[in-house]
Structure to design on (330 residues):
């Protein structure tokens, strides 16, 4: 692993409304509604959280800081009906990048936790006036009403687990509309596939409280210099967490839908969207154990209020989250 440290900035790609029952799975509404109040359509408000990384020192190949983006949000391709369902606003990760003084073409690498539309839809965008399309969607390939598309990050490699890429192309999901071809097929030439070591042997069902025999540090795979990924299966089989060291020496780990918000810290708080809720529960235990043991600072992908937290063990044998400052990160 290269010893590259990064300055980082939280980026918001806008709010997102998701069905409360689906977000809490088997946990009854009478329980989860004590933490978060749904709207009149039973939706809860979460966020599209993304991170912008800039290397502390100039990259020798680039002659400037290397810029890496973690996660891309939904993007702008959904039609008005879907935008209303999910409560989307006219804000994308591009909006946030522009506010940070950057153009999307200045991003060198993109790492996505998985390829569901609310995490990877922003990899492509609608064509604008005067632009030539990079790709044109067929009648069953568009996620919304946009057929002519551009690569949002034309100069960036896109890092994803091989299993996730294969499942996305095959639309292997409990949801029928989440792996859209219009944010997959156009980026194929830019995709870089990794195969991280799984926490447990394929096909083996661990005990619900079992920890992996191989340490989390051993299961990491480097993508961009100093940026690593690690399999966190359950929500999808190829979902990954993303980690790096910041300029203050903290281990920052961008946390995917194994723990999307602070409300999901409990053992049973898996999503109805998960391909394997039991596996999500097992992953959440070893993930929080590693976070507490290794002193990780976690950034939660959908948390709307306190996305930066640390984990510590409790006397009851589980873990509690504590909000942290993002001071010194940028």
């Amino acid at each position: 692993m290269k010893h590259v440290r990064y300055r980082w900035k939280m980026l918001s790609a806008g709010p997102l409304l998701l069905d409360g029952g689906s977000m809490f799975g088997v946990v009854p509404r009478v329980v989860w509604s004590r933490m978060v109040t749904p709207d009149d359509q039973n939706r809860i408000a979460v966020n599209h959280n993304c991170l912008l990384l800039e290397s502390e020192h100039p990259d020798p190949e680039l002659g400037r800081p290397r810029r890496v983006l973690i996660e891309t949000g939904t993007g702008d391709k959904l039609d008005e009906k879907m935008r209303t369902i999910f409560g989307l606003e006219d804000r994308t990760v591009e909006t946030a990048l522009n506010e940070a003084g950057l153009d999307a073409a200045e991003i060198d690498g993109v790492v996505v936790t998985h390829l569901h539309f609310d995490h990877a839809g922003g990899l492509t965008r609608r064509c604008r006036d005067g632009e030539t399309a990079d790709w044109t969607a067929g009648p069953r390939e568009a996620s919304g009403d946009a057929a002519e598309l551009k690569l949002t990050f034309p100069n960036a490699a896109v890092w994803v687990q091989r299993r996730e890429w294969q499942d996305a192309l095959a639309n292997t999901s409990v949801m029928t509309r989440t792996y859209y071809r219009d944010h997959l097929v156009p980026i194929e030439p830019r995709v870089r596939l990794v195969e991280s070591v799984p926490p447990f042997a394929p096909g083996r069902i661990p005990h619900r409280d079992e920890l992996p025999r191989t340490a989390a540090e051993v299961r990491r795979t480097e993508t961009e210099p100093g940026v690593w990924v690690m399999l966190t299966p359950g929500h999808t089989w190829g979902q990954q967490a993303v980690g790096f060291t910041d300029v203050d020496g903290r281990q920052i780990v961008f946390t995917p839908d194994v723990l999307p918000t602070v409300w999901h810290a409990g053992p049973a708080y898996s999503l109805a969207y998960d391909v394997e809720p039991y596996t999500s529960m097992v992953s959440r235990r070893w993930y929080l154990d590693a976070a507490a043991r290794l002193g990780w600072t976690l950034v939660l992908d959908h948390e709307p209020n306190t996305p930066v937290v640390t984990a510590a063990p409790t006397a009851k044998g589980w873990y509690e989250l504590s909000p942290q400052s993002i001071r010194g990160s940028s």
User: Anything to note?
Assistant: The helical segments are 20-24, 29-32, 80-85, 93-99, 117-120, 162-170, 277-294. The first strand starts at residue 5 and ends at 19.
